[in-house]
Amino acid sequence: MTALNKHIKIWSIRLFFLSQIFLVGFGSYFYKRPKVNLGSITIVNPYYAQIANHSKDIPDWLYTVDYFTFIFVLSFGIILFMTIYYHTNKNIEEKNDKKSIDIFIRNIFIFLYPIEEYSEKQIQQQLKDLKGIAQTNHQKELLINTLRKVHSQTTGKVREKTDYLMGELKYRSFIKAYLFSPYFNNKLFALKVIADFQISGFEKHVLKLTKERNEVLHSEAIITLLKLKIYDSLLFLVALKMKLTVWDINVIIKTVQELKIVNIDYQTLINSEIPEISTLGIMLARLNNRIDFKSTIQKKIGSPSNLTNEEACIAFSYFSRNEKDYDFMIDKFELATAKAQFEFTNKIALISNKEKAIKFLNWVVENQSFTQKVQALTFLLDLDISTMNKYKNSNNPLIRQSYYQVIDINI
Amino acid sequence: MNILDWFSVLNNLFFIYACMLFAVYLFNAVMSVLELRKYTQKNKFVDYKSILSFEKLPSVSIIAPAFNEEKTIIENIKCLLNIQYQNFEIIIVNDGSKDDTLQNVVSYFNLVKVNRAFESHLTTQTIKAIYQSRNSAFNHLIVIDKENGGKADALNAGINVSQNQLFLAIDVDCIIEADALLKMVKPFMDDNKHEVIASGGVIRIANSCEITNGRITQVHYPKNLWAKFQVIEYFRAFTLGRMAWSKLNGLLIISGAFGLFSREKVLKVGGYDRNSVGEDLELVVRLRRYMHEVEKKKYRVAFIPDPLCWTEVPETFKVLKRQRNRWTRGAIDTILKHRRMFFNPKYGLIGMLSFPNWVLFEWLAPIIEFIGLIYFFLLLYFGLVNMHVFLTLTIFVLTFSMMYSIFAVFFEAFTYHKYKGINYLAQTIGLILMEMFIYQPINMFFSLNGHIDFYFRKNKNNWGEMNRKGFSKKTNDK
Fold first, then answer.
1. What is this structure's pTM?
2. Which of B117, B396, B414 is closest, CB to CB, to A68?
3. Which residues, 6 or more positions from B173, have their beta carbon under 8 angstroms from its beta carbon?
4. Do B45 and A152 touch, CB atoms closer than 8 A?
5. Whether residue A296 is found in the same domain as residue A265
6. B 142-201 → A contacts, CB under 8 A
7. What would the pLDDT profile of A8-29 be if each residue is shown by its tens digit?
8. A330 and A368 fall within a common domain
9. Residue A105 covered by a domain
């Protein structure tokens, strides 16, 4: 019923705006005619006589200007009314919302952190009271959102209690109505609630929403599917050929870490032809310390996608363990982005073969950009101060400057 | 054709121009509604704090030029230090202040001179020293002391010293919301169709607001009449104008007081133009031109409608005149420098719509308004004014202007609702009625003055002093 009401509301609003446009259009047609016949109804223009018998000094088009002036005055009046309405209404709404949220938080906390042992009957009464406060859809939304916030900020048993509370509130039909609502915000809200409280039974519809053209709904639906844990291996991302943003990648990684998802098909993700998915796979492999995918990641170094290339370099340097890896990093140093070069230098500077490290660092000081020079000189200060000191009088002013910066900060 | 025919042609031209201007305004209103709707839909449930724990986040340098800011500099830096972000540095550029700006900062934050190396990608006045703090609490604060070279020069020096991917150019006396950076970087991360090269934000007016510890704690409607007029003007400019152009990816200006840029791209185009007083507008136009001419990639200049930055606006006729004069000179300078973009299809929508809009309705509007006035008095002198027509057209313009302004006020009440109280609303409505007779003609005069200064006087690159009252007296932090 709620969903139907929402559909009726959205179409009524559209119809209202369309009718306004129609009225303006009809008015511009009508104002220069003596009358208009609409079937059996005749509408007489009371101003026609004035227009028809206008003085010669007044041009015809001036009546068009008059007509638009009338529209502007009317619009000004309507907008002014709406401004006053929204202004006062928002003031009241903000106060009421604050009051409601305070009550919700108080009641939720009594339930989450009871000072005494409550009987089942008392618990049911508390729930009834809580539901009693949230009568309107807006209040229900506020209550669920408050609970959602508490849920996201708690762990362990308290979090489990919020899940229980959500279940006991029996808002399933309300969430369903929101999910099927024509309003974008309602859908988004429902997806957030389904994801956070891992409410099952809506998977099919959520999957449908992943194919939405609207990118926000689309990416929210992906996160929801992920949180519902029905596609642990993350392969649905590859199957659906998802074009992820850096934002999505971050959110997915955060979710994977929070839910401690382990069953991930790294190989398929890393080898995906979609650079963003490949990047996600590489980052997840690094964060979960999956060194067994080092060679797969290595192949991604030099990828045309900057994003993939950078993450592949960072992950490879993280997994590098032997001379062969270090040589590879030295060889590919110039392919790496500035951030990845920083990671490479960090790694190579600390290898056991000091001679190789010093040679590499000297090469960086002499040939690479200024930030790399500073980083390499900082390592040289520890590894070989005499080599480092030769840069004190370098002909290259940037090397000299970098030298003095390193000395100044470290000594 | 006799003289009356010529008058008739002129009449028609003025009328057509006014109708086109109204059409642009209506278009702005519709576009801004669509864009704001999209923005709120996209970000309503975003938990910005979660960005702090993101794995992949761009690093940011906040660059704030300071010139004779001894009254407010400490509070302003403290406000910047409160900004929430993972990986950022604050670079204060003392642009040859003649007062105790540098000394105050050095002693308060326990700064010492450091040998910090940097690449001079951009030419600037000599950097005398770079300071960093001994106190680890301020370890991401860097202060550059340089010879005076103007705002653009100071920003360029900051860009040279910064090492991060993005830089936020701000006016040091602005009050920035703690989550401003989190909101500003989001467009750089959530668009995989375009490369985002810059993002701008809404500037709100801080006059008469309560400020505690460098934060806006209570928003008040300004007490000063000039500032009140500017509130309505800023509603129109930011909430309607810039939002609308952002919808079309045709935004040509990011306010110099608050804008986030890709450092790499800004370096590629040669940084801020040191010879322009409208360096903010000029940089965005040059960046866009570069993207079209050189990189030829899909790109976007984003705009955030959330009120993230609060600034003190001029409260006296004299200071307002200087500011508007400078804005006009900056706009003319940019338009002339990039005139080849005007109706040039090579630049896509920017060349065919944004730039012509700027030329025709931002630059030319005050000139045409002035010519219109002269023309009217001429007709009046010769007894050629039809009073009925004149009054009808005046009311037409007046009602449109009122409708547009009230829509901007409605938009604010409907969305961010920062100003409370019915008193504010009553005053605003009153001002909307008065604006056309007081504020707009005065603004036209300021703009004409800017034109005269640009073409006929030598001080076309002079900034003029911006005397600020400062917020520090309202703060209670000691």
1. 0.88
2. B396
3. B69, B72, B76, B311, B312, B468, B470, B471
4. no
5. yes
6. 163, 186, 188-192
7. 877 877 887 788 888 888 887 8
8. no
9. no
Contact A383, A354 (CB under 8 A): yes
Check if B390 contacts A (Cβ < 8 Å): no
pLDDT tens string B236-261: 999 899 999 999 999 999 999 999 99
Measure in Å the smallest separation between the Cα of B100 and chain A Cα atoms: 26
pLDDT band at residue B470, thresholds of 50, 70 and 90?
A: low
User: What is the Cα–Cα distance from B283 to B152, expressed in whole angstroms?
Assistant: 10
Distance separating alpha carbons of residues B32 and B246, to the nearest angstrom: 8
The three-point CA angle A187-A189-A190 to 5° equals: 65
Contact B308, B175 (CB under 8 A): no
Is residue A185 helix, strand or coil? helix
What's the total number of domains in chain A? Answer: 3
B115 shares contact with chain A (CB less than 8 Å):
yes
Asked if residue A42 is part of any domain, the answer here is: yes
ipTM of the predicted assembly exceeds 0.90: no
SS3 string of B123-154?
CCCCEEEEEEECCHHHCCEEEEEECCCCHHHH
Are the Cβ atoms of B116 and A80 closer than 8 angstroms?
Answer: no
pLDDT of residue B473: 45
Structure tokens at A387: 């080599």
For A281-339, the pLDDT digits (tens) are 999 999 999 999 999 999 999 999 999 999 999 999 999 999 999 999 999 999 999 99
Is A405 part of any domain?
Answer: yes
Distance from CA of A51 to the nearest CA of B (A): 14
**Would residue A387 count as lying in a domain?**
yes
Cβ–Cβ below 8 Å for A401 and B53: no
**Do you know the residue count of chain B?**
478
Last residue of a domain, one of A33, A49, A65: A49
The predicted pLDDT at position B478 comes to 33
Examine the fold and report which residue of A318, A348, A378 is the final residue of a domain before the chain moves on. Answer: A348
Both tokens assigned to B231: 């509130």
pLDDT given at position A214 = 79
**Could you give the CA distance from residue A227 to residue A216 in angstroms, rounded to a whole number?**
16
